[in-house]
4-aminobutyrate aminotransferase
Amino acid sequence: MQEEKEILALNAFDRSKVSAMDAALRDAVERRLRSFGSASVLFYQEPIRMERAEGVWMFDAEGRRYLDLYNNVPSVGHSHPRVVEAIRRQAGRLNTHTRYLNDVVDSYAERLLATFPADIDHLVLTCTGSEANDLALRIAKVATGGAGFVVTETAYHGNTAAVTDVSPSARPGQPLPPHVRIVPAPEMFRAPIGDLGKRFAESVGGAITDLEQSGIGFAGLLVDTIFSSDGIYADPPGFLAPVVKLVHERQGLFIADEVQPGFGRTGAALWGFARHGVVPDIVTMGKPMGNGFPVGGVATRAALLDRFAAETKYFNTFGGNPVAAAAGLAVLDVIGDEGLIENARKIGGYVMNGLREIGNRHIQIGDVRGSGLFIGLELVRDRDAKTPAPEIASQLINRLRHRGILVGAAGPYGNTLKIRPPLCFTKDNADMFIAACDEVLREICPT
Amino acid sequence: MQEEKEILALNAFDRSKVSAMDAALRDAVERRLRSFGSASVLFYQEPIRMERAEGVWMFDAEGRRYLDLYNNVPSVGHSHPRVVEAIRRQAGRLNTHTRYLNDVVDSYAERLLATFPADIDHLVLTCTGSEANDLALRIAKVATGGAGFVVTETAYHGNTAAVTDVSPSARPGQPLPPHVRIVPAPEMFRAPIGDLGKRFAESVGGAITDLEQSGIGFAGLLVDTIFSSDGIYADPPGFLAPVVKLVHERQGLFIADEVQPGFGRTGAALWGFARHGVVPDIVTMGKPMGNGFPVGGVATRAALLDRFAAETKYFNTFGGNPVAAAAGLAVLDVIGDEGLIENARKIGGYVMNGLREIGNRHIQIGDVRGSGLFIGLELVRDRDAKTPAPEIASQLINRLRHRGILVGAAGPYGNTLKIRPPLCFTKDNADMFIAACDEVLREICPT
């Protein structure tokens, strides 16, 4: 419990330290707290007054620049001119709900659906990934008659009441709701035993049996296909295949949460599930979909949608409005035209190699893993014992911030750096980051 | 049951009628259905291919114009140049989450909070009204320890799983969830007996007792302060005061859903609850807040937020990003600078007088009611028996559409025209609408 609380505070601003700040920053923090109070979440021991951003760079109120390796929403680059222009143009033309026909909305739906396996041919547009996952849970319940879901133990899937229930990382210290079962994340760093796919399928199988025996019934397995909040687990490609087969045998649905890995970040394809050679029953999308314009979505099969729609009149006022669709189209255009999937693959590989290379001189680097520009750097006190070192992660994050580099942490111990820069990240950007990690680790842990 | 189904189809496109359409429209409808299937909701027996909009006017793909009396999201006028420019400017500058400090976000929070009674001094920004109500329910549950909510019988509060549970109109024919109690909407047209405020408080009191006796406990009363989906009930001002007093006596919270009446539409104040002289515990906002940019919010007291935040780590990625805040600021500016609250009051009164006046020659006009530019026109077969006439409402809506006027229906019988034009609606616009209603009613019901 105590440990959990510490982890959560890792990357976060600590309210008790306001008095140590310079006057301008203290005023800004106090101003924020006056309006947003305990619901306010701020990054860093010294929060940043951010003012503008462009490409991979963000700039604070004093003009200091920061290389962004944290933000996975502005995925094609901050303030991308093509996305901004698409938003401006459509906002000045028509911004209304989808109860009228509109070519922009239908074009976007067709473009997006064409990126999925043939089975996944229907779409519901929402405003957020949370709304998408909230809807996915209900579609799965109606389709299966079951009410139970299996998720990984440090999963995060969003912020609505229903989705918070299946997001253990958002409910620290609280008992699991009766309809939720957790399984260990599929990882080979701390438990490099046996076949990962088989092992993961076995734990999910046990959870399904438990749901069935409890009378709650099994509705589905919901996973972020790169297990971001669990600590980022991408390899070996294909490890999800056995569990998807099992889920179908047990009459449940496989829901691929692509809110984080989706839209090319893994460097292998547009969707994270593609690396595993599986076809989900439901795919949910969000964050990078509109490069910051609020838009999310659920893609699924017609039959599943029909059964849900027969019970509930679902409508989403802002969901998939023409401005969201225009932003979404611009994002798909930029990903294609700028070769961002290939860039994510190439630069992601370069970053991982570079981090592994400095790992030769820093025993605190326990593991470097990921796919494309979704990378985890796990920090340990002892590489053999693999003792998690959240305190090193915290120091690294805060010192990198002071060197003008933004990065966050993930995983159950909060000791894994979560590296997710805009997909236009370059080799030079990578060199700057790797060198800074090297230097800061030298400062923190002098040999 | 049958009746309910009919009502729901009233304003909606009927899929079985596709073959009767002209080729271009049929293609567009079939295209929409191919991507969105059974989750697609379209208006009118002949849906409209909408292309652009400006002020109170919308234009279809063939350049036909429509006077908009339906859309309450583009509340300061479609494509308002000041809002579009605010969005463009901020989207090109910085569009990120609120874990950094940012002056635009804090300025908006302060401007918005200044519009509430002093007690309501804290804010959570979300992307939609649904997310806002979803959060409000959880805040109320944590604060009271109760799990039960009281809502009106045709209420609609949004689309998440938790909010759909408290939205009877979104769950036609389904049994109420165990933690939800419904009460009749507070209205004086069909049941003009006794004191409305006292009567409404009494039914809510009965529902609270029932929740308490069932062991579920009472968390709160959630109402749209103009009862839009119930059929629009605004008068007499103050009728909510007794129920709010009662809710507090019974240790529950009063949640004012301002998603529809908020931001000046009632012509009396920025907030619908203000007409009733009450102070809510929680206020939820959405639709018109960003004039179409997806933004919503929860305003409440610090103590209530603290208790919730201690249990759940809530964060909303897109919620209140600087672009949403810039759009929200522009909306508040335009409402003030263009005197839109006063215009809603003045033109709303003019519309209601005009409709009452034509009511002298159309016995089908059973009631005209509302506040500002949120007006209900209830259609009946027989003014004395008050027999609901959804078939007349449907004909009126579809014929007005063919005359270039957009309007929708509401209420348990679907026989109440829901009149909610952009707040920049003029006397000339009103004259056009009133004359068209007069003429169409003459066509439908020749005397």
